[in-house]
Design a protein that fits this description.
The complex is a heterodimer of chains A (about 290) and B (about 300). Chain A is mostly helical. Chain A contains 15 helices and no strands. Classes of the chains: A mainly alpha (about 290), B mainly alpha (about 300). At the A-B interface, α1, α2, α4, α5 and α6 of A face α2, α4, α5, α6 and α8 of B.
Amino acid sequence: MSAATLSAPQRAPVPSLPRRANGRVLPGFKLTLGYTILYLSLIVLIPLSSLLFKTLTLTWDQFWQAVTSPRVLASYQLTFGASFVAALVNVFFGLLVAWVLVRYPFPGKKLVDALVDLPFALPTAVAGIALTALLAGNGWVGQLLEPHGIKLAFNRNGIVIALIFISLPFVVRTVQPVLEDAEKELEEAATCLGATRWQTFKYVIFPSIAPALLTGFAMAFARAIGEYGSVIFIAGNVPMVSEITPLIIIGKLEQYDYAGATAVAVVMLVISFVLLLLINALQAWQRRHSGAAS
Amino acid sequence: MNGMQTVRRTRSGTTEPLWVRWTLISVALGFIFLFLLLPLAAVFTEALRKGVSAYLHALQEPDAWTAVRLTLLTAAIAVPLNLVFGVAAAWTIAKFEFRGKAFLTTLVDLPFSVSPVVAGLVYVLLFGAHGWIGPWLQAHDIKVVFAVPGIVLATVFVTFPFIARELIPLMQAQGTEEEQAAMVLGATGWQIFWHVTLPSIKWGLVYGVILCNARAMGEFGAVSVVSGHIRGQTNTMPLHVEILYNEYQSVAAFAVASLLALLAVLTLVIKSVVEWQFERDQKAAAHSPSEKPPLAGPFTLTPVHSGLGAS
């Protein structure tokens, strides 16, 4: 063992050369790769494949019927619509929060920066009941708005608000590092050339953060689509009106309609895959973009 | 008037006028207050609505304690499992070049993009009474679904990538030179990991572990599908919150929820401390020519994808 470890570096002089596929210098490659693949298969791949096999027990007609019944279609519309609105709201406010955190000094800044991650750390069920308590007719916010005829809980508004909460950090955390790395010289140059501050933002700053904004939007959207815990408390869960797709899956499971639940789950899984690929592509674009800029 | 404007423009060439700055800060803080601080405050106010004694009484209920114990047990199994996996996956992805690496990295991220409800469903399909292994398990009197093993498995699934994706970018940025030097000096693989790699990734490791732990203790959707909601047996804390809430035991529900909220606050505090420590270490090591590796943000799908920028 020690002879091998000692002789290996002599054959391949250590520091300079990049690692070649056949010249792996460090130990543990086979062990860690093997373990990674084994664990990945046991926990993720084999369980996920059970979805596919269960779906194959359905005929195409049965599958199609399960995933396009009116109640399910209404839930897609709601889930995607609410997630889209929530992600859009977060693009706007996420950019604003990231901008303020990076550019302006103000008291309590570190606290706010830490607080942005709260939706990641707070269990979704807790977020759900807390938002419901706030927005219900007798809650702090609800009792102010209810007399004016604005209802935010137990309807679609509540769903959007819960989704804004849980997907809030994504845009902030993708845009923040890009803004931090942005070169002030470009802005100085724009000002020297006579641009107003708004023009500088529109033509210099915004294009450089656009890929990050888009990535953040896609992540927030992807997260919102799958969300269950926070939404069910505040949604009211009325079929055809305020029933999200994950709840449809749960409902079918409770009626022992495993095949139907699986069919809807497959549709959601495929959409998640597409979004994951899209996010990967966006991030590659973002890297190229920032690589070209600097 | 005109002259004054020019003066002000030159003074603030790369920032905004004061009133714009303060408007933006106010709107941003208002948003943070409404969407983050207010819900957090609501949890504690609702929990203490009927006084401290009612609050403490709600926490002393046996079912609440069973839920706390089950949550702790679940995290105590899921976090170490994903820690070992995270280190192994990061070692193999960050320190070696091989075919299919980008694909493997994407697969590691996969559980992040799967809805928690779907994550729970797959285990029901595998281990449930009508599932693949269900009949065999029943014949041998082993319960997975609607029992503790199912809860642990679903939790492991949803927290799967947390530690790995924290370590991969960190270890990639650090390269392999130091490990190779240790090898030349005759260190064994284990010694290299323990004395060379581990000290340089320790903050990333702590970071990943606390985030993984927060999610493991707080997971709701996936666990809800596999648990069966058997009170006092298969109820984790988030599920117990739901049951109490649906029974209109508001104070009790928010009391248990307040424990989870405290956990969240504690997680944020540790996370911030780790980030400051990490930055301090970075500054201390700033003389060395190596580029600064980032501490990847929590949960945000930071670009890890190997191979692309490696060479």
